Amino acid sequence: MTVQHWLASVAAAPAPAAADDRERAAAAIRDLIGVALIGSTSPAIAKVARHIRDVGGNGPALLLGLQGTTDPVSSALYNGSAAQAFDFDDIAPSCVSHVSAIMTPAFVALLDRMDPDAAINGYVTGLTVIDRLAEAFTHEVYDRGIQPTHTMGPIGAVTGLLAALGADERTAEAAFGLAATQLIGLRDHTGTSYKPVQTGMVAAAAVRAVLLATEGIEAGTSSIDVVMRLLGITDEQLQALARPGELQPVPLAPKWYPSCGAAHTAIESTIALRDRFAGGAGDAPADLVVTSPPSVMEALRYDDPANPDEARFSMHYCVAAAWRTGALTPADFSPEAIRRDDVRAQLARVRVVVDDALSPPPTWSGFPAIVKVDVDGQVDEERTERPRGYPERPLSDAELTSKFVACATPVLGAYQAERASERLSGAPAALSNLIEAVSL
Hints:
- The longest helix is centred in the N-terminal third of the chain and has 21 residues, at about 20-40.
- It is globular and about 70 Å long.
- It has helices at about 5-10, 20-40, 45-55, 70-85, 100-110, 115-135, 140-145, 150-165, 170-180, 195-215, 225-230, 235-240, 265-275, 295-300, 310, 315-325, 335-340, 340-345, 395-410, 415-425, 430, 435-440, and strands spanning about 60, 70, 285-290, 350-355, 370-375, 380-385.
- It folds into 2 domains: about 5-240, 2-methylcitrate dehydratase PrpD (Orthogonal Bundle); about 260-385, CATH 3.30.1330.120.
- The strands form 2 sheets. It has a 4-stranded mixed beta sheet with strand order 4-3-5-6.
- The chain is an alpha+beta fold and about 450 residues long.
- The chain is about 55% helix and about 5% strand.
C-alpha cells in the first residue's frame, strides 16, 4: 500500500474522534484564530491583503481581521499567511511543524460547506495522520533545508477536509495527488516576509486540491510517495507509515512568545533572571551569555536583525528585548521597537555559545537553554529544559484565554475580544460561532 492510498483510506473512513481530542482541537483552533487576528496587523500581511483584493474572487470565505469575504483559495492564502506573521502559532513538537497555521485556515475557507461537528472530527483525523507521518519527518529532513511544516500541515488539512466533507476514497486519493507537488517549504525563507506567506500558499494549495478533486479532476496515485522520497524518506519508512493500526492525534504546543520557538527557553530563562533581581534589573546594563544546542542557531541566524522578520529569528534580539522589557509581545517586533536605543545597546551585550551536550534527541522534545547574567558583578544563572506550552508544560485554560484576548483586542476591541473568546471555546463552537464571533 502506498502512503497516498493509506491517507485516502483514512480520510474516506475516519474513526470517531474522542471527546478529549475534539476539545483539544477546538482549543488549537481558537488559539490560531487569535494569532491570525494579530497577524493581520503585520505590514507583510497588508501586502497579501492588497494582492487578495486584486485577484481574489467572490465568495463567502472569511478574511480574519478584515471586512468582507472572498473565495476559499484566497481566504486560505490570506489567513494562513496571517497565522504565521508573528510566529506565534502552535507547533507539533514531534516533527517541528506548524500544522494549525495551515489546517485552521483551510477549514475556515470551506466552513460554509461543512457541518461544524463533522469539521471538528475531520480536524482530529487530520492530526492523526500527522502523528503517523512524524515518525519519518525527523531532524534529517530539516537538515536538508526543508520546513516540515509545509508538508505535514497541508497533508493534515487535506485529510481533515475530505473527512469533514464525506469524500469517497477515489476523490480522496485524487486530492492527495493534486496536493503532492505543492508540499514543499524551504528554511531558506526564514527571516523574510515570505516566511509566513509560504504557509498561506500551502493552505491555499490544500483547499484548491480538495475543491478540484470534488469536481472530478484526477491525479497520480503515488504522488505523495514520490515527493516523500525526494525529501529523503526511504522506502522502508514509507512502508512503515502506511501500516494499519489505531491512530492518535499529534500533540500540539501553543506558543507563549511571538518568535521562533527555538528561542523560547532562553527567553523564559532571561525573564526569570530579570525577575529575581530586586526591583527588576531590566533598567541596568547586563552581560548575558546564552548556551544552546547547535541546531537552535540554524533557525536563529540573525545576530543583528535589520527588520521585524529577522528579529523573530534572532536569539540575540529576543533575549535583549526580554531583558529590557520583562516580557516579549507582538509589540516588540515592530520596526520602531527593534530600533530602540536601549534594546540595541543590550543587543551588543548578548553572547551565544553552542553546546552539543544540550542537543535534544531526534524526537524533537524541545530545546534546553542556559542563560547567565552579570549585572555589575552580580552573577546569576537559569536553565530551562522545555518551552512553556509543550506537552510536558501545558498552558492553562486561563493562559490560553489571556493569550487569545491579548491577540484579538487590537483588531476586535476589548469587549468583542472577550466575547469571541467565550463563543469560540469548546467543540464544535470553535467553528460554528466563528463568523459571528470575529466579523468586523
